[in-house]
Amino acid sequence: MCGIVGYIGKREASPLLLNGLRRLEYRGYDSAGIAVLNGELSVVKQKGSVGDLENALQKSGDLLSGATVGIAHTRWATHGDPSDRNAHPHLNNAGDIALIHNGIIENHAALRLELTSHGYTFNSATDTEVLVHLIDRMWKDEPSLSLEGAVRRALRHVEGAYGLCVISSREPGTLVVARKGSPLVLGLGDGEYFVASDAAPIVEHTRKVVYLGDGEMAVVTADGYTVKTVENIETEKLITELDFELGEIEKGGFEHFMLKEIFEQPDVMHDVMRGRVRLEEGRVRLGGIEDYLDRLKQAKRIVICACGTSWHAGLIGEYLIEEFARIPVEVDYASEFRYRNPIVGTDDVVIVISQSGETADTLAALRAAKEKGALVMGICNVVGSTIARETLCGMYTHAGPEVGVASTKAFTAQVIVLYMLALALSKGRTISHDEIALNLKELTRVPEKAARILELDSQIKSIAEIFKDAKNFLYLGRGYNFPVALEGALKLKEISYIHAEGYPAAEMKHGPIALIDEDMPVIFIATRDSTYTKILSNIEEVRSRKGRVIAIANDGDQEISRLAEHVIYIPQATGPIMPLLTVIPLQLLAYHIATLRGCNVDRPRNLAKSVTVE
Ligand code: AGP
Description:
- By secondary structure, this protein is of the alpha/beta class.
- It has 20 helices and 26 strands.
- Helix 18 (532-543) links the parallel strand 24 (521-525) and strand 25.
- 2-deoxy-2-amino glucitol-6-phosphate binds at residues 307-310, 354-356, 359, 362, 405-407, 494, 610-611.
């Protein structure tokens, strides 16, 4: 989704801004632009990549040089096609105010009409452009206002979500930023300040950051900053230390971030458990929810809300919590939750899961649940993210920054957190101390098993070679492996653009079986658990219709090799552990199919890393 970078200080702004945009490329975008103040307001923007923008800058000669203040943006089209004119920054008609914006201005049509009637002309089809004209209008109405004052006035008329950053040649030493809904972070350097939509462009310059809250504005100069609410009330802000290193957001020798992140999983698994799994005591210690554990255990019901991959993790969470802790669980798409007037009250616990901690739908579900009086708990990866801050209690997944748009290590980290949570909720209630200890022991064996699965990379790549031109894929699994089938299909479709469906294997005969023929690869997750023999029958059904079967099976399973064209053997584990292992070959298969088809896996078309609009 759109990315924001701003700089004010003593260094040359444009190289810093360009570099910042590169750090934000992973979020997904279709155009990019920069505006700086170097005596006047100079802008370069265009459709295409940050590399294309850099070429355009080189061609423009010295257009942006000599500036120590500037803003830059990567746009992910919502209103108006990806094009040069729709790229940010947007300028007012006089060309002396420049603005970049993430989010959606919901009343843009009405504002556009009104501004047009006052003589403003629009140069783009974006919702954003109304903001810059509105600021101009406020300033014209009251010329004694500062840039801050004009932005503040303008925001009173705006409905919707925004993270925005404004500069003006009328007040060249100031950068004004405001946030409602779309995240903004302020990086505090030595005599210089950075603004960004996430910490990735900031961490190489400073570790000290301030997260803007909703409804807050910051006015930043080279000498300092102030944070106030949009209503002009000064607010005390906490300075936070970033908890990751630059190396963690670089590729480290891998061809793509996605591959690097798949291979990081054994280490990440250790990190998620570190300090939490107490094998010797046979228990888990979950600091972030400790004070609320009794209330969580007494929940009449748990509702899990999330989107995409995090939703799949939530489905596995449902199985885990119901199996271990015997608390009824429902899993909702966060985007549906608030629009269906859900029955949620003070006896319920709502768990929101989000890698980014900024997903607009999940945030809205969180707020709706809070309003209804539920205890709201978060499972997030990004420390200090909005969802992490707005939940009453929660657990970080500690997966490290996830840059690849296709979520991989964050998923396995989420499942481990849910596994630990389920065991913590069962303690003293539903299963014995010894059973908890046994299940924890199983969990601690996962990183080593995951590392063994990663050694199958070349086998999986050769399977990808065979099937890379298929038009459709079916993914089937049962029990704990059903959500993994959904996740495997999502991974494939989002990065390779091949249509893929995930189903509970038994549902196949209720419809999808009609699709099966010799052109349809069917991936079965057929590990040895209580549904194993049923899965074998499902494989027979596909085979008898000439479907091509690829099976994920456990080491030593001879029977499956008789039925499947290709078998990927993975280590044995208990049912509740299995998703942590079965998902890895599916991540690798999706990755290889996509790269063999020439797709850019780190920047898949139309997708954004963090979906901060509804
Ligand atoms: C995962 O591969 C996807 N890119 C997407 O489904 C993602 O999981 C979803 O948008 C939710 O994001 P979140 O976990 O940051 O809330």
